[in-house]
Amino acid sequence: MSRTPFRTRYSAASLLRQGLAGQTGWGEAWRAPAPRPRYDFVIIGGGGHGLATAYYLAKLHGANRVAVLEKGWIGGGNTGGNTTIVRSNYFFPESAALYDHALRLYEGLSQELNYNIMLSQRGVVTIAHSHHDMELMARSVNAMLINGIDVELLDAEGVHREIKIANRDPHARFPIHGGFVQRRGGIARHDAVAWGYARAADAMGVDIIQNCEVTGFRFDGARVVGVETSRGPIAAGRVGMAVSGHSGVLAAKAGFKLPIQSYALQAMVTEPVKPVLDTVILSGSTGIYCSQSDKGEMVFGAGLDLYPSYAQRGNLPVGQTIIAALLDMFPRFRTLKLLRQWAGIVDVCWDYSPLIGPSPVEGLYLNCGWGTGGFKAIPAGGWLLAHILATGQHHPISAPFDLNRFTTGRLIDEAAGAGIAH
Amino acid sequence: MLALPCPHCGTRDEAEFQFGGEPAIRPPSAVTDTVWAEYVYMRSNEKGPHRELWCHAGGCGQWFVLTRNTATHAVLP
Amino acid sequence: MRLASGGRIDRAKKLSFTWNGTALTGFTGDTIASALLANGVKIVARSFKYHRPRGVFAAWVDEPNAVVDVRYGDQHDPNARATLVSLRDGMVVAGVNGYPSVAHDAAGALDLLHRFLPAGFYYKTFMTPSWQSYEPQIRAMAGLGQVGDAIETRAFETRTARCDVLVIGAGPAGLAAARAAQAAGASVIVADDRPEPGGSLLWDTATIDGAPALDWVGATTAGMRVLSRSTVFGAYDHGSFAVLEDRAAAPAGWAGPRLWVIRAAQVVFATGAIERPLVFPDNDRPGIMSANAVLAYLRQHAVLPGRRVIVATNNDSAYATAIALRDAGAAVEIADARAEAPNIEGIRVRPASVPLGTGGRGGLAWVDLGPCDGSRRERVPADLLAVSGGWSPAVHLFSQAGGALRWDEALAAFVPVAAGQHVAGSVTGAWDLATCLAQGHRAGLDAAGRASDLAAPHAPASALARPILPLWGLDLPGTRQWVDYQNDVTAKDVRLAASEGYRSVEHLKRYTTLGMATDQGKTSNVNGLAILADATGQAIQDVGTTKFRPPFTPVPLAAIAGLRAGALFAPLRHLPVHDDHVALGAEMRDYGGWARPACYRGIGETTAAAVKREATNARFRVGLFDGSSLGKIEVQGPDAAAFLNLMYYNEVANLRPGRLRYCLLLRETGVVYDDGVVARLAPDHYLLSPSSSHTAGVLAMLELWHQTEYPTMQVSFHDVTAAWATFAVSGPKSREIVMALGGGADLSEQALPHMAMTKTMLGAVPCRIARVSFTGERSYEVSVPSGYAHSLWRRLLDLGEKAGIMPYGIESLSVLRAEKGYILIGTDTDGMTLPVDLGLEGPLRAKKIDFVGKRSLLTPDATRPDRRQLVGLLPADPAVVPVPGTHAVLRDGGGQRSLGWITTACRSPVLQRSVALGMIESGRARMGETIDLFHLGQFSRATIVATCFYDPAGEKLHG
Questions:
Q1: Residue A211 pLDDT exceeds 60
Q2: C-alpha separations of B34 from A403, B27, C867 in Å
Q3: How far apart, in whole angstroms, are the C-alpha atoms of residue A341 and residue A356?
Q4: Stretch C348-355: mean pLDDT, rounded?
Q5: Domain A33-116+189-258+351-417: assigned CATH number
Q6: Hey, is A108 helix, strand or coil?
Q7: What are φ and ψ of residue A182, in 5° steps?
């Protein structure tokens, strides 16, 4: 793999040199180019997935006329608003292959991008609250072990060893019965993932064009041959779209529907405190997930708001339930204060698995429907969409996630895999 | 926290309501897999005015269709 | 130091507290911050990144520095803002983020390395060998306070309220608005975060309608609903607002804060404004304070934070501070950035003068003053520098509620663009009391939507009202000029971010952490984005603000959760005879949201032994099971049969009255949603028995289909689950016990065979008796109105005593049903299970109508031959019970592929061996095959058999 031609490589040594020089010589992390009239590949959406797609197109497929069109600022959608969890502890082999591909790419990403994404593989502990939960968890853990994922089943004491401040009260509404851990799981710095991919893609000639909203598609017959934007028309050989939270809007502009409904997903942080939580925790029963950021804030969230929304704000009653669930597991957090509550719009696919591959319209390719789990998949989502755009063919990992599964009925229902009957 | 207008009971807090998705016309079972999938799985998912089913579950129990702007949550006439 | 008189403190009530272990005193009416200032404490905190010493800067919610640890009784606040917490007797206050103390912090040495640690430095290093090799040390350095060991136990309640007009802010504009709206007939609530109404009038010497301002406040608020100490922290949909009422002043000590959710038809935003710091070299030294805060401490708390004071300003508001300081006996000079200086008696006013630098150890000793370009400077001794960089309207809630903002060049402030919303006072950029009162009056009437004869309150116009000279830092290379005090973001950091391409205001925030500290940038954001605008050559309007999000100030998590704690969080439903179960020693567990008996353990008995005893007893003698949580939905109407036939997978229209049938209910996706027995009570009357956890869902589904797809059908639904208690008497001796109940119903095999139902009266009590079995033994489900549940439960136990009746719990039932191969929804099925997977293919072939889910059973995947199918499994080692969740695998070479999994497994008491059910790929075609099982890396084997292990002919059910 060739070395990415950065203007300034980041390192402790360069930081030292720049320190002595007054930090004036870093240069731009990425350019602000004007859009060209035509590109071989146009990627709609400057979030993690879109930027990663552009990066891998340039890096692995030698594409040199690539543009990323972002309607606002890069990383400003769900990449910048999620709770930064990475893991690959999925039930179905297809999902495990997809998310573990992402995790493996994450594991080398800081070095590859020369940008510290602060990957912290501190372990992800999923909690079981009942005997029934434990049986479902055994089913999941065995599936993951068969899929080659590094997980361990834990009894209640095992959970308490991992999470010292978790509630030990057996009479808690959702007592801790056991759980499982994926030690390679953890968190990463979300903004850095977007910025790192952007800087590396830019260094290889990708045009990252911010404040450029795609307002429509240009067709030649039934084939998409470009996009209309707020900064004029842009022709494209192939168009990829990675617009989490807006997939339905763009699909409508291209003339098709998706098996997706968009919901607000809340996230919250508390004021920072000294380290007390060293792993990521998840609970299937309450839906809560929480980790402590390197700054010391508790970063947490849980379920979706109860009705579709494109308004990027959370609803108070759902927020109250999320906080109640957090406090049931961590009663000592009752005195912590909520610092900020926000919401991102997530495109929830019917079977809680993403859509990757050709759209119903020729020339337009999809990477969407990640629901609540898009961040952890960024490297794989970009890698696979780049492969499909460059070759016109599915990769074996992406093939099961084609839109056609809704016609054949061969869904990859991760909620069902987790034992949820619906 | 929405305040939704039940056509039978008047405006009530969202806690009394249950969301029921987009109204759809059910095709007969003789249709193709594609048409059936369109009905079961595909969603218009509009940003902006969105026709949707709601049930006043904590009140009169009646389902009704509401148009709500999904970008602002404003209930439209 | 504390002045001898004045202030809104009660000098008769002296309070003792400790600061970092040192005993200090204050008065009732003090905040922790005012008490610390009165005691001469300079350093109260350390900054987040460089651990620089920090003093109190502000006097209220905008405080960026003074985060402290507070303990009071058994209460603990690890990150309290000293400016907001009312001092209480016995409080223990300590600095955070400093070791050994905030006054002498070893980590302060970090500041020496600052040139190597600019904004975002961590993105450029700490990559070799990995971030995780540095992370523990970095985490240990970060964070502020420490989570306490004690668990908060205060009661937190939530209240809701409605009103015509909610006025946010009880300053002059807010009170004028509330007064006008109330006079116009509107119901009004005023919410204000301070301990008493008045806002800026609490430190103003103005008159309103000719009287001292606070007299006007008193008269105006009489008869008005004012929530004091109540911070509106979030604007939510459709006029709803979340408000935190701090009840710290409640007599019982620290009562928990109370959450209000207020729904208002109209809202008046009278949220005031926040004073900005000036950005200049070394502007973060303890002893540098907001000019308005100095005035507030002086007037509210009679605290004089310095005796030799320089007031540095670019606008006229700080002159009031200077005059008040002069009057309190301090030596005061004013450095005004503007070219012209008014004459103020007893105060030297330096025109065109700004602070160019500061110095002093552990506090402020001198300030260099001179023109902005630094061409001249004069070192002036000072122990307090009061600064004002202008005012930023507190547009947070207005913006949260969807309001747009506009940059006003003349005011040098983002102001609300009021389009249909009501705003009044300094939030609009009006700094003059008379204007604020007039605006408030107008906004109140507009919000009420009605006129009133009431005259607007009047105040004299301000004497000084000259334009501000915006100042966004000084162009003095090599200096450090703080923008965000808590997170240590300097003007240079902002310019570095811009030069590296982080030009969006959101990129700036994220790259530099500007505005991300616990004050959420109340003092820093506008200065930061103005510097960004300068660095990028944009207009401030085009740079815009970052998004305003709830909460306005940090809110304790427990207060937001309210009563959703302990047993009241997602409360469990109780059975009608819950107490009887508990009295019998039942182990109550959560099953689908109901507290139900797992089993009834005797003294010293293990769960496994109890399950074996109960199951065996039900098989060979008689058992009693509480099935009251099982759903009961009555379906009535002439079209009941036709409608239910469209809903259910199985045929139900040809069911004879008095008969029962086991049926599946599908989703439109074809997936099995629920199972249960459907009883036909009469030609137009059915009774459905959904699973305990699905009753509400089934009812909603029936209503939805009826109302939207089949509205012309005459049928209605009624959930009577809570109205009836149901007890199953199961076992060979069941009939004699149920007969003994009386009532005269014919329970003979001919009159009431398996899957039949009859009604009777037990005295005056209506009773339903159904022959239905989930154990494989002859069973009677006896139902009476819930009010008679206890009597029936006792009576069945009494009547069955001789026959050896024993209650059995869910775990025992689970063994009995597993032996029979009866499935449990959600255990043996999941969101992928189709009826064909359960071996129930008949209705799909036989039923011609388009019942719910039918078409989805015809897709390529639904008709695939290699679907997972329900089968029985006999483990090779009959003594070993496989763990449910064990997978069946195909082993090839080093790897394996999952064929499915075990869904249910138990040791069968009757067969004296382990049995299991599982969903196995092509399971029915593998009948008789022995397959490999996999659990946590261990392998075993099992043989695939039919699902029913015991009495496959069903002889026990009959007779």
A1: yes
A2: 11, 11, 21
A3: 31
A4: 98
A5: 3.50.50.60
A6: coil
A7: -110, 110
The CATH T-level fold of domain C10-107 is: Ubiquitin-like (UB roll) (3.10.20)
Give the other-Cβ count within 10 Å of A335's Cβ.
24
DSSP string, chain B: --EEEETTTEEEEGGG-EE-----PPPPTTS-HHHHHHHHH-B---SSEEEEEEE-TTTT--EEEEEEETTT-PEE-
Burial class of C696 by CB neighbour count within 10 A (0 to 12, 13 to 18, 19+):
middle
Does the distance separating the beta carbons of A262 and B45 come in below 8 Å? yes
Q: Does C453 touch chain A (CB under 8 A)?
A: no
Minimum CA–CA partner of C588 in chain A: A171
Rounded Cα–Cα distance for residues C854 and C858 (Å)? 7
> In this structure, what is the dihedral angle of CA atoms C893, C895, C897, C903, given to the nearest 10 degrees?
120
Q: How far apart are CA C585 and CA C581, in angstroms?
A: 7
d(CA C403, CA B76): 19
C936-959 residue pLDDT tens: 999 999 999 999 999 999 999 987
**Cβ proximity of A106 and A119 under 8 Å:** yes
User: What are the structural domain ranges in chain A?
Assistant: 33-116+189-258+351-417, 124-183+261-349
- On chain B, the residues whose CB falls within 8 A of the CB of A412 are none
| Same fold yes or no, C158-274+393-448 and C280-386 | yes
CATH superfamily of A124-183+261-349: D-Amino Acid Oxidase, subunit A, domain 2 (3.30.9.10)
Nearest to C24 by CA among C35, C33, C12, C34: C35
Is the pTM higher than 0.90? yes
Q: How many CB contacts within 8 angstroms connect chain A with chain B?
A: 66
Question: Cβ neighbours of residue C853 under 8 Å, at least 6 residues apart?
Answer: C649, C666, C667, C668, C669, C670, C671
Instruction: Kindly give, in sequence order, each residue whose CB lies less than 8 Å from that of residue A331, ignoring residues fewer than 6 positions away.
Output: A167, A169, C151, C152
For residues C50 and C536, what is the distance between their CA atoms, to the nearest angstrom?
A: 27
Q: Which domains does chain B have, with CATH numbers?
A: 3-76 (3.30.2270.10)
State what percent of residues in chain C have pLDDT above 70: 99
SS3 label, residue C766: strand
Q: Is B76 touching C (CB cutoff 8 A)? A: no
Confidence class for position C760, pLDDT limits 50, 70, 90: very high
Residue C860 pLDDT level (bands cut at 50, 70, 90): very high
Q: Looking at the complex, does the CB of residue B18 fall below 8 Å from at least one CB of chain C? A: yes
Looking up tokens 């808590």 gives C486
Q: What are the extents of the domains in chain C? A: 10-107, 112-141, 158-274+393-448, 280-386, 473-538, 865-957
pLDDT per residue as tens digits for the range C209-257: 999 999 999 999 999 999 999 999 999 999 999 999 998 766 555 578 8
The CATH class of the C280-386 domain is alpha beta
Residue position matching structure tokens 């602070």: C355
Burial status of residue A63 (CB atoms within 10 A of its CB: 0-12, 13-18, 19 or more): buried
Is the predicted pLDDT of residue C153 greater than 80, yes or no?
Answer: no
Locus of tokens 């502990």: A125
| C939 touches B: beta carbon within 8 Å | no
Tokens for A386?
Answer: 């780049």
CATH 3.40.309.10 fits C158-274+393-448, yes or no: no
Q: Give the residue among C150, C54, C156 at the shortest CA–CA distance from C103.
A: C54
